[in-house]
């Protein structure tokens, strides 16, 4: 007897790819207003299917017209999200890790920040925390962050605790904005980062929103020192680990900055 449904390997791959894409899309829009819009549109689509199944002509044709222009409307409404999503696909560290030219040609640069520099960095952060000096330090990994670097002042200086404390010293020209570190070098200071659009704790201000924002679409890590509370937090993959101790920060940095196996 002929099997009623035949499932090919490609069908399974197809379903898996759609599932991964939907999951990435969910992660991307979760907590944003786009999530509510998607739920609203999906409910409308389900309603339209029911209306069609019940053969309700008038309502069906009105909703059909609406759904007919739906794709165009979606592109217009979600223009910023679609742009961000495409950038995310292109710069996401997982994709970069798999397709990395460095890896292909065996020129992997190793750790973005060496163990010695991690210690200097952490010392500087806790010294800033003690004096309640606000700071925002981004460590770039595979993402180049050129767009953000270009908004600041290029320094290309060795990582040193005194330099970091000087940069963030209140009322100096470079204390506003973020420092970006790449390949063991302080590349730039006074950089402007994208703010997260997600619903975060209302107690978090712009510095913390910027720390989260840059890690949502890139594989960068961000250390943020609160000027108000003196607490130190670390943002990774759009999540903020708040009020962490010196030991935990060193541990997390060592773990996350290790080159991919
Ligand atoms: N988009 C941005 N990119 C980089 N730095 C930013 C950005 N927006 C704000 N900042 C920095 O954050 C500072 C303002 O921080 P704000 O007090 O709003 O944040 P916060 O999260 O409450 O931090 P704190 O706990 O230190 O007060 C600004 O002076 C500026 O240095």
TrEMBL record:
Residue ranges of every copy of the DAC domain listed in the record: 79-246
The record, for InterPro entries, names:
C-di-AMP_synthase (IPR014046), CdaA (IPR034701), CdaA_N (IPR045585), DisA (IPR050338), DNA_integrity_DisA_N_sf (IPR036888), DNA_integrity_scan_DisA_N (IPR003390)
EC?
A: 2.7.7.85
What biological-process GO terms show up in the record?
cAMP biosynthetic process
- Species for this entry: Mariniphaga sediminis
Q: NCBIfam families attached here? A: diadenylate cyclase CdaA (TIGR00159)
HAMAP family membership? DacA
Give the record's subunit note: Probably a homodimer.
- List, alphabetically, the Pfam families matched: CdaA_N, DAC
Q: Could you tell me what this protein is called?
A: Diadenylate cyclase
Organism superkingdom: Bacteria
Classification lineage:
Bacteria, Pseudomonadati, Bacteroidota, Bacteroidia, Marinilabiliales
Q: Name the reaction it catalyses.
A: 2 ATP = 3',3'-c-di-AMP + 2 diphosphate
Q: Where are the transmembrane segments?
A: 6-26, 33-51, 57-78
Protein role: Catalyzes the condensation of 2 ATP molecules into cyclic di-AMP (c-di-AMP), a second messenger used to regulate differing processes in different bacteria.
Q: Which gene encodes it?
A: dacA
Q: Which UniProt keywords apply?
A: ATP-binding, Cell membrane, Membrane, Nucleotide-binding, Nucleotidyltransferase, Transferase, Transmembrane, Transmembrane helix
Q: Gene3D superfamilies under this entry?
A: DNA integrity scanning protein, DisA, N-terminal domain (3.40.1700.10)
Name the family.
Belongs to the adenylate cyclase family. DacA/CdaA subfamily.
Q: Name one GO molecular function term.
A: adenylate cyclase activity
